[in-house]
Structures are given as structure tokens and as C-alpha cells.
Amino acid sequence: MKFPGRRRHKHYFPVEDKDPLTKQLISANSLKRSYIVGIDQIVVDIEAKVDSSFLTKFGLHRGMSQVIDDETTQALYQELQDKNLVDYEFAGGTIGNTMHNYSVLADDRSVLLGVMSENIKIGSYAYRFISNTSSRVDLGYLQGVDGPIGRCFTLIDESGERTFAISPGLMNRLRPESIDEDLIAGSAALVISSYLMRTEKEDTMTQAAIKAVKCANKAGVPVVLTLGTKFLIEQDPVWWQTFVAEHVDILAMNEEEGFAITGFEDPLLAANKALDWVDMVICTAGAQGMFLGGYIDECWKRHTKHALMPGAITDFNQYEYSRAMKRIDCETPIKAFTHSAPYMGGPDAIKNTNGAGDGALAAVLHDLSSNVYHKLNVPNSSKHQQKALTYSSLSQISKYANRVSYEVLVQHSPRLSRGLPEREACLDQAHWEQ
């Protein structure tokens, strides 16, 4: 598992290459592995460029995410095919993307829970999903269903606005009994999205997700929630605030979703408010970059060596060199924040915004899991005198997540095809020696 950050030598976690004193204590063959678990609506993303009349024809509301029935799905897809409008078809799903990206970054196991068609034909949607998912993602716990998985159409009109049409198929039929409680209890994190709560009466996905969340809460496993879309949160922000406060440890959102749940337009203030409910928050804000916030104990605070930054909260980055902690583990909790501007000023041309937030979250999960991995194998390390939630500082994690987002923005697929380089071609040797 590679360590995210600058290192002059190969940056692996200091577990396998031990010094003589610790090498005799732990056999390399007995290393314990950490993993994360995610629950998702298994879907294939289909992207196409259309005009406004196309949206009107199929009764789609511009700029919104909406569910369409099977009959509309077939007609819509057929017209896209007939007019040769389909640009790309990828394995999708916000948590599916996150699990894939995590496994690519960490070169390690993640587990995806959801449903999958029992009978898979070559070239089908289910086939496309499996063939475009990292082999490091464990799909062995998927529940078989007799029918199609979901399809999500991303329709881009003349102005560049994205309209989402979702054909659920049987993607919401994950049953509560398909949730393996031991699997979740042994994981480093459970990752879910707000979409899991948007189901119809005959669907069982919400009940399955709630069961998994309660299992994680009982086992002390961090629950990570990505908000997914502002439209869903806006329908009942109070319900979401209560759910987050009761069950979620880490919240991931963009500035629009942050406004929907907190009422604050400023992403820093939205992150600050979210910390009243959770232990750690990630807020991506487009061209502004990314804000990361968490709790630290007074005795473990580390001052930044960078210039203090102005903002809605004065000098908000003063403790950004600290490692995030759970609020319950802090005797004197302090809120700490960091900010990273877009890597390299952002890409010259953004080919796809889908998945950028999922990539950032995967980087944060990599660091979170890495902390568990190191603690499992070197429990007596001075690193773990502090009951930290993360392996690295808020500042370092933010830079890492920002870098991964950039990698997604410059490609069409929402999923990484390879890990990050050990050394950036754009950085000189002096940078790596620091």
C-alpha cells in the first residue's frame, strides 16, 4: 500500500521494511490487511450530448436528477443509438466509483455491496460494469437478481448543463439479509450515499443500508456519507441533519450540497456547521478547490508552516498540520481546517466533472484505511499514542485528494485507470528532497 505524500525514498508504509528490532516481532507473512466496504446502486453511466428538444420529448427537467421507467429508458436509449449520440458508457455509481478508485490508489482490497444480474451476457450493462471495475474490488458479496441493473444517462445540452435520467432496474433490491455484519464490523470504513435513501415502496435498499449503518455504528466503524445531489437533500434537510448527526462520522459534499444541508453558501462555513454533527468533513467547491475540516485535541494540535489564510473563519488553517480525530476521543476538541486550491491551477480543459468528488473521497479513504493498516501491524508505534482517525495531517490529505480529483477531471471516465505517479514530471528534484 503506497503512502500518499512526498518522500525521497519509495513511499511505502513502514511496516514491511522493518528495522531489526521490530522485524523479529512480526512476520511478513502474517501482516493484517485493512479494507473498506461500500454499498451502492449498481449502475452503468451513459453520457450523450443532446439538445433541449430531446429533454422535452422525454419529459426530463433540465439540470435535475430524475427516475424514468423501463419503457422510457428503452425509447431514450434507442434514440441515442439511432442518432449516434452516445459518447461514452462506463461502469458508474458514486460508491462504485469510489471503491474502484480506492483500490487503484491503494492497490488493495475494497468490498462492494449491491445487486448484480444473475445472467450476464457479453456486451450487456452488467458485463460493462464488471469489466470496467478494478480486480481489487471484491464483488463476491453482490446479491444476484433476475433482471437488469441500473442505468444512469448523463445528458449534456447546448449550454453544457447536465441532466440525469436514472433507470433503476433492480438496483434497489438489495435485501437486509444480504448484509454481512461480520464483514462490516471488520472493515476500516463503511461508505454510503444519499441515493440509497431514494427508493420506491417495493425496494429494500434503504432497509439494507440502514442495517449496515447500525452495524457499523455498533462496531465503532466510521460511517462515511457522500451527499450525492442537492435536490435530494433539499426535499427534507432536517431529516438529513438528524440522520447525519446520529449515524455518520465523515461527510463528503460539494458546496451546493453543503448549502442544502447547512444553509451556508460559503463552503468553509458549511464545513464548520457540518462539524457540529460529524467528526470530519470534505467539501469540494469547484474552482475554489477543496476544504477539509476535522477535530483535534488541544494537546495534539500542530501549527501550520504556511501563511495563515483569511476567510469566513479567521486564520482557519492554523492547525492544518494536525491529524484528524474523533470528537469523542478529544479531551479539549478544537475544529481545524485546511484548503487546497485546484492542483496546477486546474486542468486546461475539463473533460468530465463526474467522479471528481468520488476521486477525492477515495484519497481520504486511502489515508483512513492506511491508519488502520499501520495500527493493526505496528500497534505499539508512537504514531498511535494519538487516537487519530487519519494517518496523515489534514493538509497532506487535502493535497492528495485534490491531486486525485485533477486526474479524474482530465479524462472522460469517472474512474481512474492507474494510480498516481510516485514522482510528478512537473515537479523538480528540490521538491522531492524537502
Automatic annotation (TrEMBL):
Reaction catalysed by this enzyme: guanosine + ATP = GMP + ADP + H(+); inosine + ATP = IMP + ADP + H(+)
Keywords carried by this UniProt record: ATP-binding, Kinase, Magnesium, Nucleotide-binding, Purine salvage, Transferase
Family: Belongs to the carbohydrate kinase PfkB family.
Key word Ubl conjugation present: no
EC category: transferase
Organism listed in the record: Pseudoalteromonas denitrificans DSM 6059
Function recorded in the entry: Catalyzes the phosphorylation of guanosine and inosine to GMP and IMP, respectively.
Swiss-Prot/TrEMBL cofactor(s): Mg(2+)
Name of the protein described by the UniProt record: Guanosine-inosine kinase
Record GO biological process: GMP salvage; IMP salvage; purine ribonucleoside salvage
Amino-acid positions noted as binding ATP in the UniProt annotation, renumbered to this chain: 284-289, 357, 402
Biochemical pathway: Purine metabolism; IMP biosynthesis via salvage pathway; IMP from inosine: step 1/1; Purine metabolism; GMP biosynthesis via salvage pathway
Enzyme Commission (EC) number: 2.7.1.73
InterPro entries: Carb_kinase_PfkB-like, IngK, PfkB_dom, Ribokinase-like
